[in-house]
Amino acid sequence: MLSFAVTLLDPGTDARACELVTPHGTVRTPAFMPVGTAGTVKGIAAWELDRLAPEMVLANTYHLLLRPGEERIERLGGLHKLMAWPGPILTDSGGYQVFSLAARRQVDDDGVTFHSHIDGSEYRLTPEAVVSSQARFGVDVAMQLDECVASTSSSAEVATAMRRSAVWATRTLAEARRIRERATWGGGLFAIQQGGLDPGLRAESTERLGSAPFDGFAIGGLAVGESRQDLHGAVAASAPLLPAERPRYLMGVGYPEDLLHAVACGVDLFDCVLPTRSARTGKVFTSRGELVIKHARFADDAGPLDPACVCPTCQRYSRAALRHLFISREATSVVLLTVHNLTYFLNLMRGAREAIMAGRYSRFRAATEAARLNGADESAPTGRGDS
Amino acid sequence: MLSFAVTLLDPGTDARACELVTPHGTVRTPAFMPVGTAGTVKGIAAWELDRLAPEMVLANTYHLLLRPGEERIERLGGLHKLMAWPGPILTDSGGYQVFSLAARRQVDDDGVTFHSHIDGSEYRLTPEAVVSSQARFGVDVAMQLDECVASTSSSAEVATAMRRSAVWATRTLAEARRIRERATWGGGLFAIQQGGLDPGLRAESTERLGSAPFDGFAIGGLAVGESRQDLHGAVAASAPLLPAERPRYLMGVGYPEDLLHAVACGVDLFDCVLPTRSARTGKVFTSRGELVIKHARFADDAGPLDPACVCPTCQRYSRAALRHLFISREATSVVLLTVHNLTYFLNLMRGAREAIMAGRYSRFRAATEAARLNGADESAPTGRGDS
Q1: What value does the mean pLDDT take over residues A336-342?
Q2: Could you tell me if B58 and B92 are in contact, meaning their C-beta atoms sit under 8 angstroms apart?
Q3: B45 at the A interface (CB within 8 A)?
Q4: pLDDT-derived band of residue B379, with 50, 70 and 90 as boundaries?
């Protein structure tokens, strides 16, 4: 079991500053988790990650089961050893990846069978197997197996998947208890609320999960193609349903404005590929909005990506140099832009936490959003890109 | 003009420890220069390069002329700014790349015309233009334009190219003087000895160059496909011909054993893509020989790449983790293996310098080569690779 405490509630919103104590350290929230899918944050050496100092990082059970496999990870001393990262790790259960990446997928009430996107070999995930895998990885937070459906699914399909996921949550919890009784694992287990954009289904999902002693609750099934308005509406409706005395984790979200909105709704934890994946396509997050580094307008720009940023990329490299390295397809460009983008997201959540602790979260959010909106005019893409 | 001093001569060989003072710092030799072709050592952020602390780094005039171009580099404050590297930089003249990379190449006595391998646009290099470009980059050491010929060329072709290169060297030196009189550049100029594997042509080349006040001399036209025996023979014959009171630079070489041999012949400076390019193909240099990280035998190997290595990759990552990241094609793998391989080459030359200063270079060389040869049995590829 993890220990969790709400440190301070913002007076004007539902935002809160909390501490989640895990076997590998304390996670101060609100917090953004960089994504290290296959056992590394892409392009980031462990000592670089130390300096970025995220509260917790995320890895994917799906990818790690396929390669290098759970037996191997356990034999090598666990996922922390593999990643060379001594801090807290949360693993997604694989549910989302099975439904988005895997081939020839067959779901039944007991679990899901699929074929690897790497080599086609067959795998079977059950609620019990998935928590067992995560326990063998030695993670700090395991996620239950859930059934994810497309954003275009009918209400009946969403409801069926939600109810099945709730049954799986209960089975996962029972298995987690059995594992803990053998005292081989000290991590926590989070359940996942489903129900799409339907507040009634979200409420039913929460009721089905809410009375069981999970260590935390996630909001799943969002950021799958819905509009920003729908996303914000669903978060605003879903977050307050979850128990206030447990951490709340919004999965796979999102843009800075989405995080700031969700924090105001009482969400504590986030993960998203946006800062890392965007770095690889040359999209940069700044205090004055996004910019696309390959654009010709940056070719002679001697300034840093973000004058307000303290990351080493902004201390050392000009926009012109970063554009040159990006269009030259240099691997260094991935490293430099990833360090910058992660710094932006991590500091955004650090700033949110400080603001909550100072009782001024609404002002922090408004100022952050205004600067991004005003700055966007000058730093947004102009369409004059040369490649 | 650069200042150069021989600090100590090894009593048993021609090895020497020297200091070359440049506008951006002192280069203590023997020294290995990491290759930063297009303005970055591939995968290595500037702050990572700071920690690796090479004495000098190499960049390629050819690549930089094509992209981002000399006007842009000068406008942005020079190559040191572009690379975010405050230490000494040497640029190759582009001669070798024109002859190995460029399309539709036409050489005449005045220079060479070619088409960019990136976009096909036409460029013209002359001896004068090339040193002017390097001066605009603001490099610490510029190389003369030379004509490089294939290793399969006839003796007559090698002789013609050598004589043309010598004329170009004289023209380059005259242009460098004109540039320095305008006081816009404080870097030095190295001439390049050519002549293939023929000691007579090497001697003629040196005579043609030797009386002019170059700041250093390079041995060019080697490591282009000849056997190790031929390479070592040519270095042993060529190095002593070059003036002892100037730095000697062996271009594009090579394996650790080639460096150790050349140091014993009195060579001071080296550059090679071997440590960086090998990192991208999973080949690792260690004190006990080379290993290929993708091989299945490393899948459960919890040890470091090289137990004798102090680099952060060896301090944090197991061979098993590095194999997993490499076969998963993670960009992090490039970073980690490059940091390790560069550490190996840089420390090899640091060790050579220390040994020379202690008067025990021959023993250092013998012990280093013996450990690599003996260790190779256990760490060399077994052919049981799985990918």
Answers
A1: 98
A2: yes
A3: yes
A4: very low
* Contact map slice: B 228-247 vs A, CB within 8 A: none
Crossing angle, helix A331-357 and helix A361-379, to 10 degrees?
A: 150
3-state secondary structure B108-161: ECCEEEEECCCCCCEEEECHHHHHHHHHHHCCCEEECCCCCCCCCCCHHHHHHH
B238 contacts B226 by C-beta, under 8 angstroms: no
What residue of B is the nearest CA neighbor of A41? Answer: B332
pLDDT digits (tens, 9 = 90+) for A166-201: 999 999 999 999 999 997 899 999 999 999 999 999
Tokens of residue B268, six digits: 């001071």
Chain A: closest CA distance from residue B47 (Å) = 8
* Cβ-Cβ contacts under 8 Å for A371 (sequence gap 6 or more): A287, A288
Rounded to 5 degrees, φ, ψ at B292 are -110, 110
B39, B325, B331: residue with CB nearest A324:
B39
d(CA B234, CA B148): 16
Q: Give the CA radius of gyration of chain B.
A: 21
Q: In this structure, are strands B188-193 and B141-143 parallel, antiparallel, or unpaired? A: parallel
Sign of CA dihedral B93, B97, B103, B107: positive
Report yes or no: B249 at the A interface, CB cutoff 8 Å.
Answer: no
Of B45, B299, B318, the CB nearest to A332: B45
Query: Does A326 contact chain B (CB < 8 Å)?
Result: no
Say how far apart CA A237 and CA A231 lie, in whole Å.
Answer: 10
- Selected residues 2-41 of chain A with any CB under 8 Å from a CB in chain B: 38-41
Confidence of residue A311 (pLDDT cuts 50, 70, 90): very high
Distance from C-alpha of A346 to C-alpha of A34, rounded to nearest angstrom: 8
Residue A380 has pLDDT above 70, yes or no: no
Tokens of A128: 């019990």
Which H or E element spans position A162?
Answer: helix A155-181
Q: Is B119 a catalytic residue?
A: no
Pull the structure tokens for residue B263: 């140091």
